[in-house]
Amino acid sequence: IALDAGGDVHITYLHDTGGYNLKYARKSTAGWVIEDVDGGSAEPGTWNSLALDAAGNPHVSYQDGVPSGPTHGDLMYARRVSGVWTIDRVDTGTNSYTSLALDSGGNPRISYHNDESPYSLKFASKTGGSWTIETVDLPGDTGWFTSLALGPAGEPQISYYYASAGDLRYAARSSGVWVKQTVDGAAGDVGRWTSLALDSAGRPRISYYDVTTGGLRFATDDASTRAATSQLQRVMMEDPPALFLAWSERSRAISRRVQVPASPGRDPFQTLWRWRIENDQRRQYACGQCGRGRR
To answer: What's this model's pTM, rounded to 2 decimal places?
Structure first.
């Protein structure tokens, strides 16, 4: 779903009437208008992702058919201009989990998972009339549930699931180089169904599903996270009992310098990016679970 500048709703979806096809619907004051985008024999339309350009024209990325079909799940891209849909075949093979964004010039950028060995995270971009395909992350079965956002200068950022380890990962490209990191590598299975958004400064915010606990989780990267890392280093040197309590309880421990979020059964150091600075008073800490404290 996407909203245009006038607040009208636009939706792309997979329509199943004994055979799949990709459809597009938009609502205005006159009501709903529904169009066929791609109704080929390959049953296209799975893993579709919609974006609108500055003029309100819809652009869609999607998979062309089921993996057993004649086009074996090729990555497709369609756009509608002046009422006419044009379609590009972007990448062949079995490709899924597409996520589409447009840069300031309306050029499409797509993140997606290649479902064939070596099972990689890929990124496609079109400038002018040519598509460029990049492999972002491999090896291992990585790149599920991709979510793409573009920074202030158009630089791509992707959140995704690393299936081989059950981790949430994040990749960002700067000056042509992709930098990847594990955001949540906690024991268990985390990171499915990721959704990425950027704040006004281009910093990532990610929501995702924790299969192990059945919970919704949220991760952020901001100045307080970097401050927390710096404070952690100071606490390690100056106030080690506070860190010992955090580790030994594996739940909720509070230092007047560092607040460790509750995460029962998990090492709190695996959730370092969620630690928050309360203040900088020294040698004051408490164990929230057991009621012990020391000043």
So the answer is: 0.75
